[in-house]
Design a protein that fits this description.
By secondary structure, this protein is α/β, with parallel strands linked by helices. It has a six-stranded parallel β-sheet with strand order 3-4-2-1-5-6, with helices on both faces. It has a single domain, classed as 3-Layer(aba) Sandwich (Undecaprenyl pyrophosphate synthetase). It starts with 6 loop residues before the first strand and ends in a 9-residue tail after the last helix. Helix 3 packs parallel to helix 4. Helix content is 44%, strand content 16%. Bound molecules: 3-methylbut-3-enyl trihydrogen diphosphate (2 copies) and magnesium ion. The site of one 3-methylbut-3-enyl trihydrogen diphosphate has 11 residues, from strand 2.
Length: 227
């Protein structure tokens, strides 16, 4: 396929509603969501996407019940452990954007190990947004700049201090579950992103639907303000 987006970012939404619809617990919904994530990682790699960012846990998600939060971090640990061999085999580099601060120590350790072990892989980078808030990211950048004593900030200098400093902007942002919002995701980086929204709940999101979205993306005319 031509015109494959270099960077796809996905707001994986709808696990809870999917669980409810199927008479399952929210946590079972998240488990099913993790299976979807695995499929989409594989499809992305096969299609030649170079950066895939998955929004897994927002800064605002701390408002959820403690049991759900614990379950989510546990799921994350399981994902890293289970997928490590595949990541090594397929050349996937694992990374994170967000704040390390509130992440439980055990999860932090496993995440850091996964990052370290996969750091020389170069086929695709899989980035999880965890404990991520775009506004906090921007403020963090502003504070770093203030501290550094610079008198004037350039776009380049600003970008260099975002969590995404070594990544290109997303070309395509997908959100599942019918919600039409960004929920504090990549606000700065999304300036010229293309958007795709689908009613499909994340656990039902398939490789086929993903390919349809990629095909549609390929037909778009990105003008960046030009003609
Ligand atoms: C997205 O699914 C996953 C996370 C936010 C962790 P939700 O849990 O938000 O599912 P809904 O929106 O309640 O259906
Ligand atoms: C956004 O989903 C965050 C993730 C997908 C991790 P939410 O379900 O938390 O977003 P809102 O609350 O509906 O905006
Ligand atoms: Mg949601």
């Amino acid at each position: 396929m031509k015109d494959i987006p270099n960077h796809v970012a996905i707001i994986m939404d709808g696990n809870g509603r999917w669980a409810k619809k199927n008479g399952l617990t929210r946590l079972e919904g998240h488990k099913a969501g993790a299976r979807s994530a695995k499929n989409i990682v594989t499809a992305s790699r096969e299609k030649g996407v170079k950066y895939l960012t998955l929004y897994a846990f927002s800064y605002e998600n701390w408002k959820r019940p403690k049991t759900e939060i614990i379950g989510l971090f546990h799921l994350l640990e399981t994902y890293c452990k289970k997928e490590l061999s595949e990541m090594m085999e397929k050349g996937i580099e694992f990374n994170l954007i967000g704040e390390w601060g509130k992440i439980p120590p055990k999860t932090k350790k496993i995440l850091k190990e996964t990052i370290r072990k996969t750091e020389n892989n170069n086929k695709m980078r899989l980035i999880l947004a965890i404990n991520y808030s775009s506004r906090r990211e921007i403020l963090n950048t502003v504070n770093i700049l203030i501290k550094s004593g610079v008198k004037r900030v350039t776009e380049k200098g600003f970008i260099r201090r975002l969590f995404t400093y070594d990544m290109p902007d997303p070309d395509l942002i997908i959100r599942t579950s019918g919600e039409l919002r960004l929920s504090n995701f990549l606000l700065w980086q999304a300036a010229y992103a293309e958007f795709a929204f689908t009613e499909t709940l994340w656990p039902d999101f398939t490789g086929d639907e993903y390919l349809e979205i990629l095909q549609n993306f390929a037909e778009r005319n990105r003008r960046y303000g030009g003609i």
